[in-house]
């Protein structure tokens, strides 16, 4: 599972059981994230959560990490100990999300929906992570 964590809402993406491809699942209000993830895990196996880590161009944590890290640590407290949390570089995911929406022929009104952008960004984060694991095996 991956999370594109935001102040108001979080984009969620998941992968297939073979970990080949990521698919956007939904967006969840940030205040409901922990409850939603726990409920999701009652029906699906999740062994790792990949969280988008916003960084500056120099690779340093962006200011957004000041609210992301505490939110994710609160989520971690609600999860079983065997679920790993992995922060993953999310630089340019919003730009890539918008580009994929345009390339896919999505209407402008739909591209303006920030929830859609968040879900696609979560998908890009998870796909990037999965690809890195394929090349490192």
What is this entry, summarized?
The chain is an alpha/beta fold and 137 residues long. It has helices at 33-41, 65-77, 93-103, 108-111, 114-135; strands spanning 2-4, 9-15, 22-29, 48-53, 84-89.
Question: How does this structure look, described?
Answer:
There is one protein chain. By secondary structure, this protein is an alpha/beta fold. The chain is built from 5 helices and 5 strands, in the order βββαβαβααα. The chain has helices at residues 33-41, 65-77, 93-103, 108-111, 114-135; strands at 2-4, 9-15, 22-29, 48-53, 84-89. A 5-stranded mixed sheet has the order 3-2-1-4-5, with helices on both faces. Strand 4, helix 2 (65-77) and strand 5 form a beta-alpha-beta unit. Helix 3 (93-103) crosses helix 5 (114-135). The longest helix is centred in the C-terminal third of the chain and has 22 residues, at 114-135. It is globular. The model has no long low-confidence stretch (mean pLDDT 87).
